[in-house]
Amino acid sequence: MREKKIHYKDINVFITCSLCNGYLIDAATIPECLHTFCKTCIAAYLENDEEDNTRCPKCDSVIDHVNPWRVLVFDRTLQSIAYKLVPHLYKEEIERQIAYYKERDLSYPPSLVEKLQEKRDEEEQQIIPANSDLHIYDDQVAICIDTKTKDLQSLPRKFIICSSNATVTHLKKLLAKMIFQDPCQYRKIDIYLDEQILGKDHTMRFISLTKWRHKMPPICLTYGIASD
């Protein structure tokens, strides 16, 4: 089975604000139609008395006749995906906010203080002692994996805790070492989720956020002899 490549241009529409045509910042979603915009963009739209600001600017769905602000929902999941897909977007946004408040000699709002603390925490985690496990500070993912057919033996332990940055190829090499006693034989193995072969470069984080979204851990996978 050939792997399908996904290009940025195919997903840009999902992480772009139609009001400013830029990547989403502080994504705010209208529950009635699920269209999402930058928080500042939709705020400017709702506060513009010259526009009919009780309707979605994209599809014209009615938002709220009395208080449109009340129904907006901050979409943390979509914003997190945008930050992960677009390199440096998160860092550049924090720098823009810092410059804005410094130029006006204003104190930082709680939301920016929280972002700065998260950034400091991430930087501290990246300071890895010499001769240590490079993945010790990664987020961990729980996996349950078992054989799909009788052609391959089951593992003595089906539950695995691994780095969220581990890829399907890493998992295949582990299986090859345990089953064939040779990690170089990993191409003989395919790994499945819900009967679908997983791409070799998919990370456990990607699988958790997309294919296992809204499901409780562990991620349940199966493996079998690779198809030609």
Topology, please?
Layout: H1 8-11, E1 27-29, E2 36-38, H2 39-46, E3 73-74, H3 76-85, H4 89-103, H5 110-125, E4 140-147, E5 159-163, H6 168-180, E6 189-193, E7 196-197, H7 204-209, E8 219-225
Parallel strand pairs: 4-8
Antiparallel strand pairs: 1-2, 1-3, 4-5, 6-7, 6-8
Please give a quick description of this structure.
The protein is of the alpha+beta class. It has 2 domains: 9-106, Herpes Virus-1, CATH 3.30.40.10; 140-225, Phosphatidylinositol 3-kinase Catalytic Subunit, Chain A, domain 1 (Ubiquitin-like (UB roll)), CATH 3.10.20. It has helices at residues 8-11, 39-46, 76-85, 89-103, 110-125, 168-180, 204-209; strands at residues 27-29, 36-38, 73-74, 140-147, 159-163, 189-193, 196-197, 219-225.
Strand content: 15-25%
- Largest sheet, if any? 5 strands, mixed
Instruction: Give the strand order of the largest sheet, numbering strands 1, 2, ... along the chain.
Output: 5-4-8-6-7
Helix content: 25-40%
Structural class based on helices, strands and sheet pairing = alpha+beta
Number of strands: 8
Describe the oligomeric state of these chains in a short phrase.
single chain
Which parts are unreliable, with pLDDT below 50 for 5 consecutive residues or more? none
The separation of the N and C termini measures 8 Å
Anisotropy-based shape: elongated
Q: Supply the CATH class of the largest domain.
A: Alpha Beta
Number of domains: 2
Pfam family, one: zf-C3HC4
GO molecular function: zinc ion binding
Keywords: Metal-binding, Nucleus, Zinc, Zinc-finger
Protein name: RING-type domain-containing protein
